[in-house]
Amino acid sequence: MIISSNLGVKLVVPTAASKLSQNAPLVNYALNGLERCWLPEHRRWSHIYHLDGRSSPNESVPSSDVFYTLNVLLGMSRVAEIPDGIDIPEIFRRNVLQLTKLPVRRYAFGMALWSAAELALEIPDPVKSELRAILADEGQWKSFRAQDLGMLLTGVVAQARAGEKEWWHYARPLYRFLTDRFHSESGLFFDAPFGLRRRFSSFATQTYLSIACYQYGEFAGEASALVMADTCVRNLMALQGPQGEWPWFFDASSGCVVDFYEVYSVHQYGMAPALLEWAERFGQRQSRDALIKGFNWVLGHNQLGRTMLVPELSLSLRSQVRKGELATKAPRVLRAVKNAWLSNGERLIDGANVELRLECRSYELGWILWSFGRRTDLPELTHNAVFRGA
Predict the structure, then answer these.
(1) Quick one: 58 exposed, middle or buried, by C-beta within 10 A (0-12, 13-18, 19+)?
(2) Using an 8 Å Cβ cutoff, are 118 and 50 in contact?
(3) Nearest Cα to Cα of residue 234 among 254, 208, 206
(4) Mind spelling out the 3-state secondary structure of 337-358?
(5) Residue range 154-185, pLDDT digits in tens
(6) How confident is the model over 372-385, as pLDDT tens digits?
(7) Structure pTM?
(8) CA atoms of 273 and 229, how far apart (whole Å)
(9) HSE (CB half, 13 Å, CA atoms) of 325?
(10) How many angstroms separate the CA atoms of 62 and 77, rounded?
């Protein structure tokens, strides 16, 4: 069926996912959206699906496409019914082999470990060799960012849990490096082990390292890891905005927010729920309410009073950003440094000075699959009318 969206894009609406009865409507929504992001000639999902009305909305950046595709496949490991035509083993193998050919970040190798473990798939030998080189050379770790370390540790633990013990002997050194160089006395995590940039950390920093600590702590029986993760989550919930906004930028040294913006939809409906699922499992009672409040931000309980979903396309708008900062990070950097120097806790600004980033990225939909593919206890979210009618 051909439709015309309110963003001026004419598309063929995919119907396969909407008929998968074992999936929650939210999950089918994400699967339908991913159908639009699919690049058939490359057998992967795209870096960006632009929502500004251009005639060719999918933008490919191969190194990013490949990482996003592994992220999507991770999410699909939790989906009850996969649409016809998605050959997960073939897509995984084709894309994971690209990790040794493209200029990808180390965290992409961590995602390869994690997704392969969850999907019970074999990692090809060339990728294993590269992984061993990364993990064995502790001198390289000095250049790790938080996402590199978090995903590699999570991937190693996931492999060990799946019975692939080869990787387990790397887990304790990675965890020791995390505690020595990334843990701040504030309870938040640093973004890097050294340097001036270290103290300025993102919401993603906190998410990936906390999930890694939960994973490692549970599997290794390491209470200190669980305490670190729980402390970080408690601090994040205390800093959550009045309408559920998860702040983007922190000063990890002081534990303060140095910039709320951008507020990203993927944090609200995907990454925060993935983290808060762990927190709830380990007894953080407020985490469920924080998850729901954050998700409702996407449904319209936000500064702009508008949904961040594009139901006719089964996609979402990427973020709410300060006006004038769609194409530059310079003001945000200066603002963060100033607020950290003055020990200022940043607040939300007037909504009149906020605009939308009109794009959707495939990994964002992948996080929906991971965070809600198996959840049956939040029907107000997973079976919300907006997803049933999309």
Answers:
(1) middle
(2) no
(3) 206
(4) HHHHHCCCCCCCCCHHHEEEEC
(5) 999 999 999 999 999 999 999 999 999 999 99
(6) 999 999 999 999 99
(7) 0.94
(8) 14
(9) 19
(10) 23
